[in-house]
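User: Show me an example of a complex going from sequences to structure tokens.

Assistant: Sure. Here are the input components:
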Amino acid sequence: MDNNQKRFVEDALDLLNELDEGLMQLEANPEARAPLEQVFRTMHTIKGGANMFGFPNIGELAHNLETLFDFIRQGKLQISDKLISITLHAFDKVRDLFQAKDASKILESPDITEHITIVKTFVESVIAQSPEQTEFSGTRKDVLASFFIRVAPTVSLTVDGNHALVFIIKDVEALGTSKSYCYNNNDGTVAHWDIFLSTTSTLAEIESYFLFIEDECKVITEKLYGADLFESPSFTAFIDHFTKAPVEVEVLRSFVAGLSGELDQDAEEESELNGNFAASKKTLNDTYVKVSKRKIDDLLNWISELIILQAQLTNAASGINSQALLEVTEHMEMVTHRLRDTSLEIGLVPVETLVTKFKRLVRDLSKGLNKKVNFLSEGAETELDKDVIEVMSEPIMHIIRNAIDHGIETPEIRRSLGKSEHGTIKLKAFNSSSFVNLVISDDGKGIRRETVLKKAIEKGMVSPEAQLADDEILSLIFHSGLSTATAISDVSGRGVGMDVVKQKIDDLRGYVSVKSTVDKGTSIHIKLPLSRSIIEGLLVRVDDTRYVVPLNMIERIDRIPYDGLDKNNSVNKSILVNEQLLNVFSLRNKFHPGSQPPKTTDIISISVNGVRRAIAVDRIEGKMQTVLKPLGAAYQQQDFIAGSTILGDGSLALVLDPSRLFQSFQ
Amino acid sequence: MKKRILVVDDFTSIRDFVCETLQKKGYDTVSASNGAEAYKLLENGETVNLVLSDYNMPLCTGLELLKKIKSNTSTSKLPVIFLTTETDPGKMKTAKDAGLSAWIKKPYNAESFFAQLEKAMANG
């Protein structure tokens, strides 16, 4: 820490004490104006100082808290216990770090990052609540828009001169992705600048840069489009034409309007984003309690027991002809389901908590590798189990690392390909039925299938004669020991990574798939079950044993004569089911040979990593919701069985893991 | 003669830092911790070439100081610059209308900072 930083820290510690004092007063007397102003100003000072003396993370934290207290000043938010404790906790952490007087520790503190996330989430919830969202200028920082700025000095100046305007132009260019041209007069003085800028700043913010220099220049600012035009190759190619002569504003406008085909998708995405944003309104006046994870786990355990008991009760009640009893059990079933849903939500946290971490990673890595990368997130309010988030954090970081290292090209290459210099990495989260989906996509160079296949053949993972579908080739990247990087870098490329990613996702009973187009980019789709213990399943019977097939994997069910299957093999290649040739695995042939087979067999088609397979069972008994119970140690090796469950009549059923089933017995 | 700049900021470490930075560049500095104190200095005949002030300060904000300076005929020619974390375009417009010479955002870019300082002093 240098002397200036030390002095700042000393002063800031004093300020923090004043801040505590002010917060206490506010807590005791929420309507008081004086302590509110004092708290607001103190935060403002800490923000300014922290940014100035090289602690941008503390600056960001103070900025977000300042935003909250500004809402209170504007009457958009009430003082609440939650607000006060969030603020106190955040600054307690800052105080601890300041007292340690270690600049690098302060900058790398994960706690600060976490507090920033908490405060940001709060800010967003306030904004979502407010009907007049537009008034919160500059708070939705993730939305990019594209602008055209033309600045013509009315005084004589040169581009290498010392005029303030020259530096203001530089400041404006630094607001985001930009491309600018400076056109000179014949005498070498500047005629005007044209700047194409894609930024999260608003038009008013951009204009404000020129406010104090308006006597010396004429400025035209125009919002071109509500998204990043640099993502459009035809736009970047278009603006490359103006090295000699400036673009005519009319031509530019009509060009952007004509991009509609290419941009429609963006616009749609944007409106979808706004839609999600509006839908994510949360109840603000909620109060919060901290509960230990163990208590939640206990609660969930008891609820899963209750679900089993409830199923037994329904079963028992159906045997007794009592209208009153049936009514009660039906009602109880409903309440149990509600209870289950609510309790599952307790342990959920928004994906947002990960986003800050990723932003930081993207920033640091792209700097280290001299690449320009934007990180965008979408649907960050989507909730996931806290445990799952913790487990997934590493794998996703690895995917992002790969995307920056191998996916996104250097700015020079990107320019030569007609792409924007800035690559984009996007994390999109959304719910679909009982799954949470995470899609990590980049607009880099994509994965070359030939290269992957060649490597895999070299390493003996695939036989040279094998006929593999595109998807199957891409899935090879999840094998251990396969890295297509030509040079092994510090960041990734050791080839131990994607297999671990896959392993972790498998452990969570999730799925992962890759899509990639050469020169367009790669997207990795991770699908995770919402809950780790409760599943929807199809109850089936083979001989006198019952199995549960997870419902989410099932595509269709057909009934064929049992004679259609080969009686001696458990795996039947190419059985014609519904006019499609499928590989069918017969549970009966594998586990129940010898007993008398039924006349027909039900074929359950499922999708395993995008490939259709089928399981043959004797009979389908029905749909059920069930609680997954782990099997004892003796069965741990049988990983094609995900667990067991107790049925309504008290008997046991085995829950199958179809993808592992096919892996084990292929 | 060295140019003299009045630095106004309620936060000591920032004020000291700014003063030191200016001194290294060859300016003379005098400092005050809020608008009221700064204005008193000016009223008592302190002569400076520029006032470099924070925006948000207790007792007397930068804007109030600016208005006082501009409404007093003996100081109205004195250029005032805000050095602040505040970025609200509305506030910037108000300050501009009140006679502010430049609005520099913290943290600043050194080249841009000195260029704007010099420009303000040349015009004032």
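The lines above are the inputs; the final block is the predicted structure for all two components together. Residues 133-141, 264-285, 484-496 of chain A have pLDDT under 50 and may be disordered.
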